[in-house]
Amino acid sequence: MSKIDPIRLEVMKNAFDAIADEMALMLMRAAYSPIVRDSMDYSTAICDAFGQTLAQGVTTPMHLGSFYDAMQHLMERYAGNIHAGDVFIGNDPYAAAGQHLPDIYIVEPIFHGDTLVAWTTTLAHHADVGGIVPGSNALGAEEIYQEGLRLPFLKLYDRGVINSAIWEIIGLNVRVPGMVHGDLRAQLAASRAGQRSFGELISRYGIEEVLACAEELHDYAERLGRAEIRDLPNGTYHFTDHMDGLGTSPEPIVIQIALTIHDETISVDLAGSSPQVKGGVNTPLPFTKASVYTALRSVMQSEIPNCHGFERVVTVTAPKGTVVNSVHPAPCGARGITGYRIIDAMFGAFAQALPDRVTADGMGGSTVPTFAGVHEDQAFVFTETVMGTWGASAGHDGQVGVPHMGANQANVPIEMIEATYPLRIRRYGIVPDTGGAGRTRGGNSFIREYEYIGEEEGVMSLRSDKRDFLPHGLFEGGEGTGPISILIQNGQETELPVLVTEPYTIRKGDVFRHISPSGGGFGPAKDRAPEQVREDVEAGLLTESYARVTYPHAFQGK
Known about the structure:
alpha+beta; Beta-Lactamase; seven-stranded antiparallel β-sheet; five-stranded antiparallel β-sheet
């Protein structure tokens, strides 16, 4: 039992959360790139002196828990050489326990006197880190050396003095150095804000109380996690999901899950998943674990603190050399799509144990188009994480215009795109007749069209999925529809692969049209209330002709 007053512990938990959220807001407001500022592809966290997460800001769930592995690597590398004023930078999955090269960590120690008491940590997806493809999400890369600048954990600042060589090396190796340097400064600003606020917390409550509450918070989260798992049905639940595969001749990539609930703990084994591939979808183990934690947190009902203690009740195993536990030199620049599929597979397994707490399959995460070239004598790289459509649940239809739970990201506003890049958004809206049929209906697809209006040639690439393996329904719910990605050049339409391994050349007037996958349905279509079907028709989500075929019972006698 805890010796900490529970009210004081709750106050301290919320204080840790507030610091992490303050850092997140600071980073967003100071960021330069749309991928950070508008799509919000970044995370912030406060860690204790042992590198265990105390609180994580309200941004990307798939970064959940990933800080711990990176921090263990950093602390081992610099044991005995960590000082006030140091700032560490790193990104490499194999040399720094990172996630992929565009995700750069900025980490600072917090000292009280001469004692290391905590860390501020930030992680941001940068617009470009070099490599063979602008945006550094090289689906066609065969090894990590092709993906961009690799950084083990290095001291960007040593006792308050900047290492200008690192700063210059980064600027020389990326296509948009002003944007990358600007986002790094935003991370530094967020980190400094977290340092100040943590210092104020110590001044207010005293170092002994803050550290005691930090230690107790982990134990409290573990107790809550164990208590909730006790209420889940014991057993092993299996599910297999797929990615369509790479390029113009795709071979399916398998994600296999065995989820075991045993009294107070959960284990997740990904044995049977495909071997790592010569393409950028391989996933380092820290990211696989973070994806599992995200799915698990989403089905739990308790307000469990977002700290490392929760992770003590979960064990994640995956064979080395697979797409879910890649080893050097496997490329992993586009590993996000694999993380989404791990979460989807977790949902498929949980549907067998907790059918009322999960949704049918959705669009499978973000579609990621990247446009790059030269505009007004300046290099540009524009990458967007386009969200999002969910499958239906037992209680409501699939949502549209929301992110996949693994990302908590947003589409870039049209005005921001058109004001900054040689792009025009010609169309953005919902596509009727696309959600999987069911008692509750899958979310509709959406369409987004980009016209390239640059005077000079550019390039575009694409990451999407679920064309061959459609979003599945649950409990007799219908499948969702797959994606359609079309490049229109001189009136000719070319259907693009879901995972483009070689970027396409684009010229002024070319149009990229993307229709997203839609969500799967939940329950039999014959059980959908007739008035709901008619409301969908009135709202333009279904055409009457489609509705009469799919839900004939809603039109009997009409």
